[in-house]
Amino acid sequence: MKNFKNSFFYILIIGGFSALMYWIAVQGEKLEYNRNIEVVSTNLSQWDSFLESITHNIHHPLAILLAQIVTIILVARMFGWICKKIGQPSVIGEIIAGIVLGPSLFGMYFPEFSANLFPAESLGNLQFLSQIGLILFMFVIGMELDLKVLQNKAHDAVVVSHASIIIPFALGMGLAYYIYESFAPEGVQFASFGLFLGIAMSITAFPVLARIVQERGLHKTRLGTMVITCAAADDITAWCLLAAVIAIVKAGSFVSSLYIIGLAAIYVLLMLKLVRPFLKRVGDLYATKEKLSKPVVAIFFVTLIVSSYATEIIGIHALFGAFMAGAIMPDNMRFRTLFIEKVEDVSIVLLLPLFFVFTGLRTQIGLLNDPYLWKVTGLIILVAVVGKFVGSALAAKYVGQNWRDSLTIGALMNTRGLMELVVLNIGFDLGVLTPEVFAMMVIMALVTTFMTGPALNLIDRFFKKQTDETIPAEVIDAGKYKVLISFGDAKNGKALLRLSHFFTKKQGENALITAMHLTPTSEINQINIENYEKESFEPILNEAHNSNQKVSTFFKISNDIDSDISKTANQGDFDLLLIGLGQSMFEGSFLGKILGFTTRIITPNRIFNTIAGKENIFEESIFDERTRQILMKTEVPVGILVDKKFTKADVVFVPVFDKNDAFLISYAQKLIHNNEAQVTILDSTGFIKNNADIKEMIRSIEQKAPNHITVMNEQKIEKEFLLKQDLMLISLNSWKKLVETRGIWLSNTPSTLIIQK
């Protein structure tokens, strides 16, 4: 009845008001009689008129910009993914994507399509939008710099940092002297040309360097702390120098530039002494996510925009103002993290790739059409590497670092990446760099960033470590029963810790449990690593405290999580690796249970391959891609916990179908010994009954723990029996068969530990 009333009301409203609108339109046409209204007539058919309208819409500036953004993001993501797969920072892929879409490749082989997608008149819109992305990005970079760290640890780091600036700066000016006559634009003074080449040689990409330090697990080491501090000091110094260089170039002479530098000094003083205390008070009042309302957010974004506007007006570029606005944000780490999360995704994922492609559109590698030009490019790369790599390494050695750490610092400080492109674009916009020099310098930025990873690998090969730092030192201790639990979220980690506790409760010092949490590099910032690690392990450590269980923790930022989990388990020679799966595969219909984790399309051809034994689509449907990779790469036993509100292991069920399941009895024995569990073993095929060794093993368990182990021979297990169990232990092969045969157990089993021997 209610549905009928709703339908009647809907028809009445829509029909009545549609009729009213039609009547108004008819009456409105009568008002046209006394007006001179021209009706544009064309000889085009309706279809041709429609096509003309679509063509006009396609060439509208907004449509072109949106098409550019979609293309740029897709291509940048693709090349970034490829670079990550070969062990390079994704920023390199995004820079390459820009060059590919530019005249160097895409414009050369598909000129008409390139001209339609990136018409000359649209580049202004793309440039301004990319500049907004850069402003937001520099704001994040400023926030990621901890000025207190610089104050506390700056002595050696500042020596290395400033040496890594002054040496390449001097070499850059020397290079400028060599190429000025051939490559400097007409009307550009040597001072301007030389200063820009100097600053381009001395820049370090703090964000790329920080990401590499994270990915290589150096962020918590003395070396990692020093190199991050060096890069931070380098960033601040280089941006101050860049501001001065821009002032000199814009003013035309050093004396005139003093006025700009004086205004810049007043601006910095106001930001530090007036704006910073005000923002600190606001930050102290609204430091939590709940209190951070939109008006409060607006205060900080207005500060960012006003700061960028002020530096642009002064003449030292808006990016310096954005960087400064980030640096004076409240010191509260949680507060900064909240803002970074708000800004970073938009700036890095959406807007920053526009800058890379805009740079690529400016980069005309085709201009380097002479062997001499490539020789000059090689010279530029050589000067850049010698100045930054060698200069930083020698300075680090001088302040007391060993050769391995000194060379590592040199390799990392030689990373230029995005920050180099920012400097080059500023120089290009100011007319200091010709298109040829710009292309050469972009190639130099790519090469010096690309070589960082291989250089670090080469250093590691020549200076081999005594112990592997990728695993905790205590894990190397042999003779203990070692369990590694790898968890993603706290709920999953607590269940895995509980399970490992039941396996080792009475072993005391003879057991070692290590809780490991890996997080993707894309989901964390340098500024909040320690805070994130603490929050990740806090629930686990609380659970361990409540159960009086000693646990060691291991945190790592990873670029390949499944490989790192397997590598840690293998290198630590753990007796058992525990990972979680969740219970979603048990929910919903049977089809959902079987196909819930399928990540590829199941085609008729794949079904045929399964029947023929060439492929197993059921195995793919049981586990997600990461779990399958872990099972494939791990050399130690792996336990996959399907958590169905797992809290205890007092009553345990162990189905044994053949000789390959016999190893499960040793795990049952551990639960009996450590947790006094009541274990029921299912021998539905009669394998145990006919195997003397297994019968003897069970008999020895009964002697030590009477009434704790029972063998059943039933062919069919009732639902009520399964519901009384706390935990089921089953081998991986038997679990696969259970899924393939569509057993009714899937929806009735308790929390299940699937074990791969």
Structure description:
This protein is an alpha/beta fold. It has a 10-stranded mixed β-sheet with strand order 3-2-1-4-5-10-9-6-7-8, with helices on both faces. Helix 4 runs parallel beside helix 15 and helix 8 crosses helix 9. The radius of gyration is 33 Å and the shape is globular. The model is unreliable at 583-621 (pLDDT under 50). The chain has 31 helices and 10 strands. The longest helix is centred in the N-terminal third of the chain and has 37 residues, at 147-183. The chain starts with a helix and ends with a strand. Helix 29 (692-704) links the parallel strand 7 and strand 8 (709-712).
Features:
single chain; 757 residues; alpha/beta; 10-stranded mixed β-sheet; 31 helices; 64% helix; 8% strand; globular
Topology of helices and strands:
Layout: H1 2-30, H2 46-58, H3 61-85, H4 90-101, H5 106-109, H6 111-117, H7 123-144, H8 147-183, H9 190-202, H10 206-215, H11 222-251, H12 254-285, H13 294-314, H14 318-327, H15 333-362, H16 371-398, H17 403-413, H18 417-429, H19 435-450, H20 452-462, E1 481-486, H21 490-504, E2 511-520, H22 529-546, E3 551-558, H23 561-571, E4 576-580, H24 590-595, H25 604-612, H26 617-622, H27 625-633, E5 638-642, E6 651-655, H28 664-675, E7 678-682, H29 692-704, E8 709-712, H30 719-723, E9 727-731, H31 732-740, E10 751-756
Parallel strand pairs: 1-2, 1-4, 2-3, 4-5, 6-7, 6-9, 7-8, 9-10
Antiparallel strand pairs: 5-10
Helix pairs in contact: 3-4, 3-15, 4-15, 7-14, 7-15, 8-9, 8-11, 8-16, 9-11, 9-18, 10-11, 11-12, 11-17, 12-13, 13-14, 16-17, 16-19, 17-20, 18-19, 21-22, 23-27
